[in-house]
Amino acid sequence: MKKNVGNIDKMLRMLLALAVVYLLASGTLKGTAGIIAGILGAVFLITAITGFCPLYTIFGIATNNWAKKSKNNLAQKEQSMSEFVTINEATCTGCKNCVKMCPQGILYIDEKSGKCKVTDASKCDRLGGCERVCKSHSIKIS
């Protein structure tokens, strides 16, 4: 379970949980609405304490270290590209066979160079379909 809830997010979740407790204690929320609010308040409190939100995982969201990650995002993508997918631009013909084959949709033909590029190699399934259909043998998956 990798933490994906940041400090500001944790504080907001705690405040929401406290607001729910107050509304329940004051009798403002009763019956079904009170039960639902109580469950949501408990979820907010648990996710704030653990620093993990399952919905964030499903939707690919993380609020922890957001500023640091956004600054280094481009560098991380370039590093991951060199780790998983290597494209020899000198031999790439821009035929688009690899783009059509990629089930993850991470390959594209750059308009300026006319060569194959990778958007996010960390999403590569590493099955090598693009490598097999590349007639110029310009793609290598490691």
| Terminus-to-terminus distance | 27 Å
Strand order of the largest sheet: 1-4
Number of helices: 6
Q: How does the overall form come out from the CA principal axes?
A: rod-shaped
Q: Structural class per helix/strand content?
A: mainly alpha
Range of strand content: 5-15%
Keywords:
two-stranded antiparallel sheet, rod-shaped, Alpha-Beta Plaits, mainly alpha, two-stranded antiparallel ribbon, 142 residues
What does this protein structure show overall?
The protein is mainly α and 142 residues long. It has 2 domains: 53 residues; 63 residues, 2-Layer Sandwich (Alpha-Beta Plaits). It is built from 6 helices and 4 strands. The strands form 2 sheets. It has a two-stranded antiparallel ribbon. Strands 2-3 form a two-stranded antiparallel sheet. Helix 1 runs antiparallel to helix 2. It is rod-shaped and about 70 Å long. The chain starts with 6 loop residues before the first helix and ends with a strand. 18% of the residues are buried. About 4% of the residues have low confidence.
Set out the fold topology:
Elements: H1 7-25, H2 31-50, H3 54-59, H4 66-84, E1 85-87, H5 97-101, E2 107-109, E3 116-118, H6 129-133, E4 139-141
Helix pairs in contact: 1-2
Summarize the entry for a quick read.
The chain has 142 residues and is mostly helical. The chain contains six helices and four strands, in the order ααααβαββαβ.
